[in-house]
Every structure is written in C-alpha cells, then in structure tokens.
Specification:
single chain; alpha/beta; Rossmann fold; 4 domains; six-stranded parallel beta sheet; 24 strands; globular; binds adenosine-5'-triphosphate; DNA_helicase_UvrD/REP; nucleotide-binding
Length: 650
C-alpha cells in the first residue's frame, strides 16, 4: 500500500455564530511515488519485530507508538522469514474490535501470516473447553466462568495443556486490560507455553478495571500481571519499549502523549495526571464550545474520519439524537458484544432453488446484491463458505450449515464489522484501539475524588485524548441534554426520567434506551403483533434505504403469550416489526407493573437492517423456506415515551 503523506494545507471551517474561525487540516493524501510499498520500521520497532521465535518479550509502549503495527509485522516476520507455520502461532487480544483490527491489517498486508489464529480470550477459552471437556458444566457459564474453567483445565488436564505446549509462539495484545480471571488465564498460558512469546500493552490505557470489585486491584489495573511476568521470566525476558508516537500528524493532536509515561507507572499520581490532561483539553485551541454552536462545525469536520467520544453511552445516545435532529449524519458505535450480520446474508437464503447452490451461482447473485455494500463478492463468498464447515468442497455451499452457524452466533468477525462512517459517536471504551483524524472529547469534568475511580477516569481521559491524528477538540454538553439520564442497573439500560422521579414513580418516566434485540426475531415480521404478508415485509426491508430512518413504536392491542405488551415498529406509516419479550420485560421494570404503558415510543432510529435466524417451523408455515433466516430492523436510541391522554384507556 502506498505510504500516505499528508499535505499541510488548511481550510477554514464554518463555525457557529460568534466563534472565531479555526483552521483544520484538510484530508488531501499525496501519493509519494518513491515510498516503499509498506511503511518502514523504525529501529525500535525493528527490535521488536525481528526477534527470533523463542524470544520472550514484553513490549510496553504508549498510545500510537505502533504496537498493533508491530504485532502484524512480527507475525509476518515469523511466518515469512523464520519459516514458522501459521498454525503454530496464536494471537490473543482482549476485545473483538482489536481482533478484527489485527485480522484486517493482516489480510491487507496479504502475508501468509493471515492464516494465524487471532482470537479473543473468551473465544480461546471456549475452544479449549469444547475440545478438552465437551460435556462440562462450563456451557452454561458466562464469559468469566468460562475463562476460569479453562484456566483450571490448563492447570490440571494434560490434554488441555497440550494445546499450548505445542505452540511455537504466543502473542498477547492489550495486556494492560488483563485483570482478574483473564490475568490468571494468561499466566496459565505463559507457564505452559513451550516456545516464545510477545506481550504488548500500554499500562496507561487499562480501562477495564471496573470489572473488578476490589478498589485496590481496580486502581492497580494490570500492574500485578506486569510484575509477575517480569519476575517469572526474569532470566530471559526482553523487556522493551516503543517511544516514538507514529499516529499524531499535527502537534495539536498530541498533547496527551506526554502524560503516557507518568500514567503507566504503578505508583502514578493519577490526580496530577488527570489535572494536566484536563488542563490541555481546556486550552483555547481545543475549544469547540457548547453544542448549539458546535454542531455545524462537527458536521464540517466529518469530511474526514471524526469521532465524538463520550464518557457514557447515556451521553452518546442523547448526543446522537441531537445530531440526528439537526440532520448531521453519523453512526453510533455499537458495543463490541453486538454481532450484527448484514442484510445481504439473508438474501442468499431466498435466491436459489437448491439448499446447496454452486459457487458460480452464489458469486453471480452477490455481484448484483453487493453493488452498494462495502464488501466485494469474492470476499463475501469466502466468509460464507467459511461457515459451512465443508472445506473439501470448494465449489458449492451448504446453506443449512450456514444457517446453523448463524443461529449459534458462530460467525466470522469480518462479517459483523460495522459499516465505515466518517462521523462516529462513541463511548471512550468502544473507541479503544481506534484512531481518527479529528477527535472531539466530551468534557468529563473533574474526577469524582474516589481513589479507584480517579485511576480509571484518568486512563479513560488519556485513551480519549490519544485517538486523534490531526485535531483534538473539547465539547461541552448542555446540562438539559443529560439531566435525568441514569443507568437502571436492574435492566442494564440507560433511562431518562423527569426530575424527582429517580426513586419512585412520582412523575412519569421520560424514556428508555432501545437495544438491538428489542425487535422480535423468532417469527418473520407480519406474522405476530400485526398482520401483513411476510414476504412483502421482507421485500420492503431489503429494498428500502432504512439506515438512520426514524421509527416509532406504537402500542399494539395484542399481548404476547406471556401477557407482555407488544409494540409495532412503524417506519413512515409501514409496520416493519414487533417488539420482543426482552423489551417488554425491561419496559415493565422501568415503568412498574401497575402503571399504564406509553401509547408510543418515539425518537428512535434504525441502526441497520440485519439478518437473524428464527424458528424453522414459523419459516415453513409462512412459506419463507426451510431455514428460518430473515431480516429485522435493528433499532437504536433513547426512546421517548408518549403517554395516553388523561381519560384514555391505557
Ligand atoms: N513505522 C511506521 N511507519 C508509518 N506508520 C506507522 C509506523 N508505525 C506505526 N504507524 C502508524 O501509526 C499509527 C498508530 O499505530 P498503532 O495503531 O499500531 O499504534 P498502537 O500503539 O497500537 O496505538 P494504541 O495503543 O493507541 O491503540 C497507525 O496509523 C500506524 O499505521
């Protein structure tokens, strides 16, 4: 790929009334014909990349210094230069986003290393358990339970230990997030690993300590794991750092990086670092101002990759609604746990007369279906083919097997990658590991003063402020936007309540966060909750541009089998879905069983139309084929309740 350089041209950006113009670097890539086909490693990066396969290495490096970049190049080095088989290397990372990032960079590099197994800790733990203890009780356990069970198995079962002992090289990314069960899992892996390892991380970016209950451990983050690695492998550990920031192209975007070293120390003075970071953020050159003036500037900036980073998803939801109302196109970043299968996949299940269409027929269908999609037909075929499990037959695909894998949620990460967007509204947690030309940080205010929170809040602010390449700005959210917005722990959703209504139903509830699984998937739309020809609704979902379109939930006269209130999803007067039981349950918990239900829920949008797998019986009964695969609208937003008028039945 050509080395991309950036011109230093600037153009004035339109700002809200009363604000002085600021100058923003323009995205104008200049092709350098003398540049090598892939970026040149710096000396310190080469030292990391070109260690032999047995090396045991701990790389501690600040944000943007090229950890992911080095990881990808190290894999290529091991496979291409050291002749290590891709099957003998394992890469583990904390988040699905990071795994996806590594896989994408490997596949872009086109190296033989793209066949290396890259997984999250959860996925690898599940793999060990399903091979070494297929009938174990771990199947009903959550993520932490599975990781603890896999750790136990590694320490007690020779079979399980064999997986790891045979590896020639283990790479662990995002080491700073390894606390609790995951830290123990990695310790067990490292103790068993016969070959070398490469551990990469930035202690200043450890932001998952909140998963721990003990405040002292939370404050320490992964410091205990780092200390253990240094002691356990003291004899032959290569303990190295990367010091040069490769991300920042404009010095205004780099103000946070100086704080990285201070923040990564085990005895960091978090209060002082937070103060320094926030002082930089409060500087006049970062000033974007209040939202009413700032939104046109945000819209202008979004001609280049831009992110607005919020401390909580409650803020992100409210800000997203505000931007939508003003016509500012953007994508609200989903949780890494959401596995959203794109709509084109459902199209495969109705396109052919056979359950095993040929590669040729599938490619011809995909060429036509993917004209507007950010994925090529050949790539789409490869992903689908990976799910049918029949590697022997490359010339056709078994759609029954693909449907079964979809139903189990066992889908390639590349298939569920979110569509690219120039403007992203995200929480800081969801933006970790990502980079943008422009980053607008919602001012978090001073830290609360709680010791454990102070460490976490400081690391979060550092992560947010270290994402930009060119421009770092600060946004103040008006208090009326976030007033009354709380996380309801019982339903694990953000809600908005009128003042005075936090603890009891004094006033009426204002609204509730809507989530992806709030639309019923078990039956095709039109067959429960409202009546419409199911195939016609599917055609409408497949052929209408619905992303970001506003929708309303309208209270149905029907209740479901569990006597839960149903709502019909309306887009532009057309019914396109019905709410699920999980929505009804959460609504009941938020409002209270004894109170009237809202007539409507408004201020919602369609995040995308996604492929889901429901009941095969419902599919056959409704003439929708044998697989039970169809489309449903995925909704997003902080829904606003519209209550029945006094005297009307509720
Ligand atoms: N030697 C290099 N030449 C050119 N670009 C580089 C080089 N090393 C890294 N980069 C670029 O610098 C940016 C930051 O690199 P990378 O994302 O790997 O950093 P990181 O340490 O993983 O960051 P973070 O911890 O903040 O997520 C990327 O755009 C990457 O392509």
């Amino acid at each position: 790929m050509p080395h991309r350089q950036r011109g230093r041209q600037h153009r004035p950006v339109r700002r809200g009334a009363g604000l002085p113009p600021i100058r923003v670097p323009v995205e104008e890539p200049v092709t350098d014909t003398t540049a090598p086909s892939s970026p040149v490693l710096s000396d310190e990066q080469r030292h990391v990349v070109e260690q032999d396969v047995d090396a045991r290495m701990l790389v501690t490096a600040g944000a943007g210094t090229g950890k992911t970049f080095c990881l990808v190049r190290r894999l290529a080095f091991l496979v291409e230069e050291e002749d290590v088989s891709a099957a003998d290397i394992l890469v583990l990372s904390y988040s699905r986003a990071a795994v996806r990032e590594v896989r994408e960079r490997l596949s872009r590099a086109g190296s033989a290393a793209q066949h290396v197994d890259v997984r999250t800790f959860d996925s690898y733990a599940t793999r060990i358990l399903s091979e070494a203890d297929p009938d174990g009780s771990w199947q009903t356990a959550g993520y932490d339970g599975r990781i603890a069970a896999a750790t136990h198995l590694l320490r007690t079962d020779e079979n399980a230990a064999g997986f790891v002992e045979d590896l020639q090289h283990l790479v662990v990314d995002e080491v700073q997030d390894l606390v609790g069960h995951r830290a123990e899992f990695v310790k067990a892996l490292l103790e068993l690993a016969g070959g070398g390892f490469t551990l990469l991380g930035d202690p200043a970016q450890g932001i998952y300590g909140f998963l721990l209950e003990d405040p002292v451990q939370r404050r320490q983050g992964a410091a205990t794991l780092y200390a253990w690695v240094r002691e356990r492998f003291a004899e032959d550990l290569t303990d190295t750092t990367l010091s040069h920031n490769r991300r920042v192209r404009d010095s205004r975007a780099g103000v946070a990086h100086a704080q990285g070293v201070a923040l990564s120390r085990a005895d960091a003075d978090f209060a002082a670092v937070h103060r320094d970071l926030r002082t930089s953020l409060l500087a006049p050159e970062c000033h974007l101002g209040a939202l009413d003036d700032a939104w046109p500037v945000i819209a202008d900036l979004a001609t280049a990759p831009t992110a607005v980073l919020c401390r909580t998803n409650g803020q992100a939801l409210r800000l997203s609604a505000h931007l939508h109302e003003r016509g500012v196109a953007h994508r609200l970043q989903r949780s890494g746990l959401d596995r959203v299968v794109p709509a084109w996949v459902a199209g495969l299940f109705t396109a052919f007369d056979t359950t095993r269409p040929s590669k040729e027929a599938v490619l011809a269908h995909l060429e036509a279906a993917l004209k507007q999609a950010p994925i090529a037909a050949q790539q789409a075929w490869t992903l689908i083919k990976r799910m049918d499990g029949n590697r022997g037959n490359r010339l056709s695909v078994d759609l029954g097997e693909v449907a079964a894998r979809l139903a189990q949620g066992r889908v390639p990460d590349e298939l569920v990658a979110p569509a690219p967007a120039l403007l992203v509204v995200s929480t800081i947690h969801r933006a970790k590991g990502l980079e943008f030309d422009n980053v607008i940080v919602v001012d978090p205010g001073p830290p609360s003063g709680d010791l454990a929170d102070e460490a976490e809040e400081t690391r979060l602010l550092y992560v947010a402020m270290s994402r930009p390449r060119d421009l770092l700005l600060r946004l103040e959210l008006p208090s009326e936007l976030t007033r009354g917005v709380y996380k309801n722990p019982e339903i694990d959703r953000w809600v908005k309540r009128h003042p005075g209504a936090q603890h009891q139903f004094k006033g009426r509830r204002y609204g509730m966060e809507i989530r992806g699984d709030d639309v019923h998937a078990e039956d095709p739309a039109g067959t429960v909750g409202f009546t419409a020809p199911a195939r016609a609704v599917q055609h409408h979902l497949a052929s209408t541009r619905l992303t970001a379109a506003p929708v309303t939930l309208v209270r149905s006269d029907e209740q479901d089998a569990g006597a839960h209130q149903r709502y019909v999803v309306h887009h532009d007067g057309v019914a396109i879905g019905v709410t699920s039981q999980s929505f009804a349950w959460s609504l009941q918990k938020e409002i209270g069983r004894q109170h009237a239900r809202p007539d409507r829920v408004e201020d919602l949008r369609i995040d995308c139309v996604e492929t889901v797998v429901g009941s095969q019986a419902a599919s056959i009964n409704n003439d929708m084929g044998p697989f039970g695969v169809w489309l449903r609208p995925r909704l997003v937003g902080m829904g606003r309740f519209v209550w029945p008028k006094k005297g009307q039945p509720a």
